[in-house]
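REVIEWER CHECKLIST
Item 1: Sequence provided? yes
Item 2: Single chain? yes
Item 3: Sequence as submitted:
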Amino acid sequence: MSRNNPRIGTQKESSLHEALKFHYSGSEGSTEILEGSYICDGRTGEGELIEIQRGSFAPLEKKLTNLTRKNKVRIVHPIIARKYIETYDTSGRLLRRRKSPRNGSPWDLFFALTHSPQLPLLKNLTIELAIIESVEKRTDDGKGSWRRKGVSVSDHSLGSLRSSVVLSKPRDYYQFIPFKKKEEFTIRDLAETANLPMPLARRTLYVLGKMGLTRRTGEKRGNAFVYERV
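Item 4: Structure as written out by the authors:
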């Protein structure tokens, strides 16, 4: 695999980001490429631009709006289904290894879309959820957060790529609406049916509503608004 400039935009890049960048750009593609005035994580051999984004998509909104006018773009959003935490001393000796109690799910996508809910409507944009196992490397150096008792997070790396969920068109998001067309439901109904915490169910309906896939009916059940699949 070639690179246009191996030093562009890589200074703060984690091992996880780098591994996904190379995986999705492919053996015939390039990484750290310049497209117009934008630096992209990669381009496949077929010409699709690749962006790896772990957090909110909001910082990418302007960039993606411009890039998708002439290019196919794929955002790869890693979903950490299982994470292992390894803690080392300052000499690099492994002190302990444990499994994180938190497991991510494809529904976490709606945290990333909260501040850019209409992004999936862009023509030529694909969002791919990479369901992965990861390793978080920590160093017991006394410089980290007080919550971690001074232990610093030094890197994230890819353990394995389990599967993926590809979302290329607005209709692909109907898989996140576990109700039939015109079937009425509340935020609590969504939370209970999909086994989601209420805050995530609320964000999910907000994004789906902005995408035009759900709407309020104007009715209420007690104090709860009623929604339907459009």
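Item 5: Key structural point noted by reviewer: The CA atoms of residues 108 and 156 lie 19 Å apart.
Item 6: Recommendation: ____
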